[in-house]
Design a protein that fits this description.
Elements lengths: L1 E7 L6 E8 L6 E10 L24 E8 L11 E4 L8 H4 L9 H6 L10 E2 L19 E5 L3 E4 L14 H12 L7 E5 L3 H13 L3 E6 L2 H10 L3 E4 L5 H9 L3 E6 L4 H9 L1 E9 L11 H5 L3 E4 L7 H13 L9 E5 L3 H9 L5 E5 L3
Parallel strand pairs: 9-10, 9-12, 10-11, 12-13, 13-14, 15-16
Antiparallel strand pairs: 1-2, 2-6, 3-4, 3-7, 3-16, 4-5, 5-8
C-alpha cells in the first residue's frame, strides 16, 4: 500500500516527506494507521554518525493508532482495535518470560538496528530501493506502520488515541522507572535529573507513589515550573554550583532514589553524589559511553542501576497509565505539543531548543 512517511537519508540531513510502498502484514505482523506519534530523544540515535541505524530509515517509536489488518498467527489484536505501539522483544528468552522484556538479549536487533529480522524489505521508495522500517519494531513517523503482536498494545477506544503514543516509550520509561525499577514509595525522597518527558513522567509517578520530597533538576526554567505544577516539591537549576550538595542539604543527607535522564557524565556523577548512604540511582539516559564515579560513595552502599523502558511490561503498564490519566492523577497530556507530520523538522528543532517537552506528530493520512 502507498503511505507517506518522514525519511531520514543521512545522519546530518533533514527529514523528507516521501510517498513509499509498505508491504501487507506478514506472519506475526500488525498494520496500524497512525493517529499520532511522539518524537523521543532516542530517535536522535539516527543522528549519530556511523552505521548503527541504517539509512535511509523511517524513525519514530511512540506510535498510536487503529489496526487496519493483521497477519497470520496474530492473536489478541484485531482489525479496528485502538493500539499504542511500544518497544519490541523476542518473547521467548528468560527475561521476556520473567516479565523483564526491556532486558531481552535481542533488544538491539529488535529495536535499534531498524533492519528487518528476516532480511526482507517491507518498505520501498519511488525507485524501488529499500527504506528501513523496523525502528523499535514500528517506524511510526508515517501514516501507517507495521508492528508485531508483541509491541502493539490494545487500549480503550474512548481515550484520545492521537495523544497516547508517548505512553509507549518516554512516558512509560519515566513513570515505570520510578514505580517499578526503583520502587519509589510513600514517604520517600526522590530526585530527577532532566525534566524532559521522561523526567516529568517520573515526577508525576513519584507523586502518585506518595513520595514526600520530589526534586527536579533542569536547565530550563519553563520545565522546572511545569515540574512544580506536576508534583515536584523543589526545583534546582542544573547550572547552579554543587547541585548534589544542595540536594543533600534539602533532605538532611541525600535522597533515597535518584533518576538520571540525561546521560551527561557530570550530571550522572552529581546524581550519585546526591544519594544518601544505601540510596539507588537509576540511569535511563542514552548516548554516553563512560561514567566516572567516586568509589567512596559506592562503598557506603549506594547503588547505580541501569534501566531500560522502566522495566515495564507494556501490555499491563500502558493501560494502567491510561486509567490513571482518566482519573486525573497522571496528566501526561500536559507534556504534549502537536505538529503536522510535514513539520517534523520544526518539531525536532523546537525539542532541541527546549521550547516543547514532547512533540507529537499527526499524520494527515
Amino acid at each position: 500500500m502507498h503511505i507517506d512517511a518522514a525519511v531520514l537519508r543521512a545522519f546530518d540531513g533533514p527529514f523528507t516527506i516521501e510517498s513509499l510502498d509498505l508491504a501487507d502484514p506478514g506472519p506475526g505482523e500488525v498494520l496500524v494507521r497512525i493517529a499520532g506519534t511522539g518524537m523521543c530523544h532516542t530517535d536522535q540515535m539516527g543522528r549519530i554518525p556511523g552505521d548503527l541505524v541504517a539509512k535511509p530509515v523511517v524513525l519514530g517509536h511512540e506510535g498510536a493508532g487503529v489496526v487496519e489488518a493483521v497477519g497470520p498467527g496474530v492473536a489478541g489484536v484485531t482489525e479496528g482495535d485502538h493500539v499504542v505501539m511500544s518497544f519490541d522483544s523476542c518473547g521467548t528468552c528468560t527475561d521476556c518470560r520473567d516479565g523483564h522484556p526491556g532486558f531481552c538479549p535481542q533488544m538491539v536487533a529488535h529495536n535499534m538496528l531498524a533492519a528487518p529480522l528476516d532480511g526482507v524489505a517491507r518498505l520501498t521508495d519511488a525507485s524501488g530501493a529499500a527504506v528501513h522500517n523496523r525502528w523499535f519494531g514500528q517506524s511510526s513517523f508515517a501514516t501507517h506502520a507495521l508492528g508485531t503482536a508483541r509491541n502493539v498494545v490494545p487500549v480503550t477506544r474512548d481515550a484520545p488515541i492521537e495523544r497516547l503514543g508517548p505512553l509507549g516509550c518516554g512516558v512509560q520509561t519515566g513513570a515505570a522507572s520510578a514505580l517499578i525499577a526503583l520502587g519509589v514509595g510513600a514517604g520517600d525522597t526522590f530526585a530527577v535529573f532532566g525534566a524532559g518527558a521522561v523526567g516529568l513522567a517520573a515526577v508525576m509517578a513519584a507523586r502518585l507513589a506518595g513520595a514526600t520530597t520530589i526534586i527536579a533538576v533542569d536547565l530550563h526554567e519553563s520545565r522546572l515550573e511545569l515540574a512544580r505544577e506536576l508534583g515536584a516539591t523543589h526545583t534546582l537549576n542544573g547550572a547552579d554550583d554543587d547541585v548534589a550538595g544542595q540536594i543533600r542539604a534539602l533532605t538532611g543527607g541525600g535522597v533515597r532514589y535518584a533518576l538520571d535522564t540525561t546521560a551527561v557524565p557530570d550530571v550522572v556523577a552529581s546524581a550519585v553524589a546526591s544519594l544518601r548512604a544505601n540510596g539507588v540511582c537509576g540511569l535511563v539516559g542514552v548516548g554516553a559511553t563512560e561514567y566516572r564515579l567516586d568509589a567512596n560513595l559506592l562503598l557506603m552502599g549506594r547503588t547505580v542501576k541501569g534501566i531500560i523502558e522502566g522495566d515495564a511490561v507494556p501490555h499491563t503498564f500502558i493501560p494502567k497509565m491510561i486509567e490513571l490519566w482518566r482519573q486525573g492523577r497522571f496528566p501526561f497530556d500536559r507534556l504534549i505539543a502537536t505538529y503536522p507530520l510535514e513539520k517534523i523538522n520544526e518539531a525536532e528543532a523546537d525539542a532541541h531548543a527546549g521550547k516543547v517537552v514532547k512533540p507529537v506528530l499527526l499524520p494527515a493520512g
